[in-house]
Amino acid sequence: MTSTAETSETALLAASARRGWIVVAAAFVVMFCGLGGLYAFPAFFNALQQDFSASRAALSWVFSGAVALYFAIGVISGPLTDRLGARPVVLGGIALVGFSLIFAGMAASIATVALAIGLGVGVGIGFSYVPAVSAVQRWFLARRGFASGIAVSGIGLGTLIMPKVAEYLVANLGWRGAYTILGLFVVLAGGAAALFVDNAPEKRGMAPDGKLLQGPLPSRDELPGMSLGETIRSSQFRIFYLASVLASVGLFIPFVHLTPSAQDRGVDPSTAVTLFALIGIGSTAGRFLIGGVADRMGRRRSLALMFLGLGLMMGWWIFASSAIGLAVFALVFGLCYGGYVALAPALLVDVFGPRNASGVIGVSYTAAALGSLLGPPLAGYAFDLTRSYTVPIAIAGVLGLLSALLVSLMPEPHPTA
């Protein structure tokens, strides 16, 4: 006969495995709502440009400001999550995203749009994205790359779906009504998902990969890994950080400029927005596929290949003159971008351990903040001056190749729980 203790342990093991995937699903929805709400921006580009007579450089700053902020805020939200837990931080962040989108729909000037999107949405994502993605890392070890990939595929799916939804809403309700509807959706769906984000399996007597905690409940300082200070001072972190800065300069240029660039090459506006959505398809595929492959091939080696792909595809973009050529760029670029987003947090926890996972990931994301703050606005200024994107895209391609070289110099880590 099966004893009561054995039955209880079996039930707890099943609950541990189930709970990890619930956290993955919750993080997926949070990222779909938050990042999808921001990445719908290309669908609003023409309407905002016409209503406020704004230049491409000015609109680029709205988007870049939001991206830079949500990465930079990770340096605050990451350590805060390690102390307070992920749920309250994510809940506050996603609520700010939703209400900021609603506020954007009330804007009377481009400055107010910048305040709502660049500041409000940027800060809100910063307090929801890093805590959600770092929470997933705590529930997995052997399949960390795969689980992380599924969670962040919410961004890819949001990039695919939200711009087309926003395009439809803008056409039927105007850009103000569209932002209001998107904001309400983020508050309701994202807020509900945030309630299930959990970054402390040990408090439930659980361990990564659906296992049970052995021994007494450890304090955070007893978990394996480096302190935040030790991590920042290490040579491996500095290499990773520099590579992320270089890659991020070009990473977000297509998020702002692919749609207008396609229109400049004779692609009709609706198809141009669809091209941007193809980045979402590629990104979603990359997050699902690359994470699982990297678990077997090595996450450091896989990340270097993603950076290499980003650099090479910038060269492709320069010479793509048709909708088909741009579609190939969008899909492959999205694949590499999705792989990068899936692998970066998993690799960081592999190298530096789970003890300060949120803080380490949050600090590392300030690298992407620096890159994203430079890339899209400089590309916008270059176009306003020369009527061409060739020079900034070429520079971004070279920087992507350099980032791949830097990551290839890092040793392959041996992850711990």
Outline the structure in words.
- The protein has one domain: Up-down Bundle (Growth Hormone, Chain: A).
- It has 16 helices and two strands.
- A two-stranded antiparallel ribbon has the order 1-2.
- Strand 1 and strand 2 form a beta hairpin.
- The protein starts with a helix and ends in a 9-residue tail after the last helix.
Keywords:
two-stranded antiparallel sheet; Growth Hormone, Chain: A; 417 residues; mainly alpha; 1% strand; 16 helices
Secondary-structure map with pairings?
Blueprint: H1 4-39, H2 41-52, H3 56-72, H4 74-84, H5 86-104, H6 110-126, H7 129-137, H8 144-194, E1 206-207, E2 211-212, H9 228-233, H10 235-251, H11 253-264, H12 269-297, H13 299-319, H14 323-352, H15 357-386, H16 390-408
Antiparallel strand pairs: 1-2
Helix pairs in contact: 1-5, 1-6, 1-7, 1-8, 2-8, 3-6, 3-15, 4-5, 4-7, 4-15, 5-6, 5-7, 5-8, 7-8, 7-15, 8-12, 8-14, 10-15, 10-16, 11-12, 11-15, 12-13, 12-14, 13-14, 13-16, 15-16
